[in-house]
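User: Could you check the structure of this?
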Amino acid sequence: MFSRLRLARFSTVMFCAFMGLSSLGWASEPRIAVSKSPLSLPFFVAKDKNLFAKHKVEPVLIECLGGNRCVKELTEGRVDMATSSELPFMFAVFQGKPIGLVTTFNTNKDDMKFVVRKAAVKGGTKGLTGKRIGYVEKASSHYYMDLFLLYNGIDPKTTVPVPMGPEALAAALAKGEVDAISVWEPWGHIALELGGADVAVIDTPKLYSQTFNLLVSNEYRLAQTRKSIAVLGALDEAIQFIKKNPDEAKRILARDVGIDLDTVKAAWSTYQFELTLQQSLLTTVQGQARWARREGHVGSALAEPEFLNFIDSSLLRKIKPNAVDFVYP
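Assistant: Sure, the predicted C-alpha cells are below.
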C-alpha cells in the first residue's frame, strides 16, 4: 500500500511537471496585438504566406483598433508584443513601462486625415475656432490634431476637444455630434463614406511623418530572444514579398483591413515598408515628449526619459545590421 501511495504521488508530481513544461512551451509563442490598419500590412502578409512558420515561430495575432489600444494590451500584460505608432510608445515610456521598441516597419506621411463638416469651415479653416473636434486621446490622432490646428493659426485651446475611440469618430462626424475629426486610416475613408457630400478632407502639407513600430515586453524579449528575432525575420520577408508582389499585397490589405481595393491603390504610394531604426524616430519621439509636457498630457514633475534606453537595436542588428542608424547602441 505504501509503495503504491508513493508511486501515485510520484506520478502526480511528474504529470504536473510535464504540464508545466507544456505550458512554458506554449507560452514561448508570442501573443502580438496588431492594429487593424494599413500600416500593419507586413503582419497580414506574413500570416497569409505562412512566413512566421517558415521562421519557426507561431505567434497568436490579436486584432485591436488602434496602436494605443495595442500598447495598453502590452503594458497590462495580456500580450508580449504590440504594433503602434511612436506616440503611444512615448507615453508608455513616460510611465516607466518595461517595454522596448525593436524596429520600425512602416513610415507614412499621409495616413492621418483631418475630416470636417463643410458647414463648419465655410469661411475657411479659422472657422474651426470654438468647434467640436473628435480625436483619440494620447494617440497619433491627438498629436496630429494639435499640429493641424497650429499650422492653420488656431490655438488648440480655443477648440472643444471631444475624445472617443477611433471606431466612433466617423459616425460622430456624420451625425453632426462633432464638427471635425483627426483620425488615421481606414477611419478617414469610412468618415468620407458615411458623411457623403456633407464632409471633406482638408488637404495640408505633410505635417507629420508617422512611424509604425513593433514593441516587445522586456520579459519576453530577454527570455525569448530567438522567437523575437524570428518575428522580425518573418516581417522582413513579408516586406520583400510586398515589394515584389504589390498587386497581391494590395488585395491582402483590402481584405484584412476591410476597405475597398480602389482606396488601397490610391494610398499605396504613401506607405514605406522597411525594417529600420533611424535617427528620425528618436527626434520625433523627443519632439512629442516636449509637446506632451507643454500641453499638460504628462505630469510636469516627470523628468523626460532617456528614450534610447527603451529602444533595443540588438535584435534588428542580427538580421539587418545596415538598417540601424549609428545613434542606436
